[in-house]
Amino acid sequence: MKNTRLSKLLSGLAAASLAIVPSVAQAQASPAAGGIDLPANINLLRDNDPNLRTATAVVNGQVITRTDVEQRMALITSASDTQFGDEELQRLRTQVLRNLIDETLQVQEAAAQEIVIDPAEVDQTYARVAAQNFGQNVDAMDEYLVSIGSSPSSLKRQIQGELAWQRLLRRNIQPFISVSEEEVNELLERLEASRGTDEYRLGEIFLSATSESEKAAFENAQRIVEQLRQGGSFVGYARQFSEASTAAVGGDLGWIRLAQLPSELATVAREMQVGQLVGPVQIPGGFSILYLIDKRQVLMADPRDALLSLKQISIAFEPGISEAAATAKVETFANMVQTIRGCGDAERAAGEIGATVVSNDQIAVRSLPEQLQSVMLQLQVGQTTPPFGSVEDGVRVLMLCGRDDPQATAGPTFDDLMAQLEDERINKRAQRYLRDLRNDAVIEYN
C-alpha cells in the first residue's frame, strides 16, 4: 500500500525538472577532454572521503539543510521495495543534494528576474495532488508524507521549483524558439509516408556525461536501473533524476517513430517489448534509460482500442474445499462452458451448475490484463476464453458478445507537430541554461 500510494503521488505531482550531475571519475589523459590537461596517473594530495562531508550546502547564500535532503530522499526510497545499504544511501544522498542545488538555482534565477511564485499557487497545486491521490483530503496527504519521513514543505518546495523553471523558460527561451511551416509540413509528409510502420511511446531517463564523468554517469544510471527493476516508480525516478525537460512529465516522450530517436536508442527500442526496461544506453552527451510504455502503427487503428461487449461467467469455491473437489468443480465448469450456444444461452447454462454471469458492454481491449488482450482479439462472437483464476479468487471465463472496432486515426495535427518541434528545441536550450546557472553559482559545502 505504501509503495502504490507513493507511486501515484509521484505520478500526479507537478514536480521539478531535477538533474543528476554525476561525480567526476578519475579520468585517463585525453587531449580532447575539453582542453583540460590531465596526467595519466592521478596522485591525490588529500584523501577524498565523501562520508566526512555532511549533506548540506549554501547556494548563493541560501542554505540547503540535511533535513531538506533527507525529506526529499524519503520520497524516493519509500517508492521502492529495495532495502538500501549504507553505501547506496550515501550515493543517493549526494544525488539528491545536487538536485536540490539545481532547484535552488532555478528559484533564485526566477526571483532575480522578478518572477514571483505566489505561495497560494503552490498550495493550489499541492491541493490538486491531494485531490488526485487522497480524495480532496489535504490533511491525509500531509500525514502520509510525514509518515514516510518527508514533509508537506518538501513537496511544496519541489512544486515551487517546477513553477519557477517553467516560467523562466516561457520568458527567456520559448519566445526565441522558431519552427517554420515548411519544417512542420515536411514532417507531416514523412509521417504520411510512414503510415503502417511502428511507433513507440517511450519513457526516458537521461543523464548527461562528459568524457571525464562518463564512468560515474554510467554507474549512476546502473543504480537507477537496479532500483527500477526492484519496484521503483519510473515516473518518480524520471521526475527526480532525468536531465531532460520531459522529467516534468515523468520522462514520457509521447508517441514517436524510431527515425526521431538517436540511432543508438532506435536500435534498442526496435527490439523492446511493451513494459520492458532497457539501459543504460550510451548516446552522444550521456546515457539513457528507456521504458516502452506502449507500441502501435502510425496512422492505423489500434485493435486494442476496440470496445467489447462481454459476459463473465464464474464460479466460487467453498472455504476449505479439497484439491480433488476443486479440480472436479473446475472440470464441470469447463464442460458447461463448451455447451453454451452463444451469449443468449449463457444464463441458462450457468444456472445449471450455480455459476454467475455478469455483463459489460463497454470494455476496451487495452483495459484488460495484458495476458487476456491477445486472447480476446482472436475470439469470434459467442466464443470464450480458456478458464482462468484460482481457488481463492474463483475461476471464470469471458465470452465475447460483440465488438466495435476502432477507426483509423487521423494522426497528429499541424499544431501538434509544431508543438513537438518547439518542445525539443526548448529542451536543448533549457539544458544549456541550467549549465550556465551552475557555472555562475557560488556554492559552499559544509
UniProtKB/TrEMBL annotation:
Key words of the record: Chaperone, Isomerase, Periplasm, Rotamase, Signal
Listed InterPro entries: OMP_Chaperone_SurA (IPR050280), PPIase_dom_sf (IPR046357), PPIase_PpiC (IPR000297), SurA_N (IPR015391), Trigger_fact/SurA_dom_sf (IPR027304)
GO molecular function: peptidyl-prolyl cis-trans isomerase activity
Keyword Ribonucleoprotein: no
Signal peptide positions (record): 1-27
UniProt domain PpiC: residue ranges: 197-294
One matching Pfam family: Rotamase
Identification of the protein by name: Parvulin-like PPIase
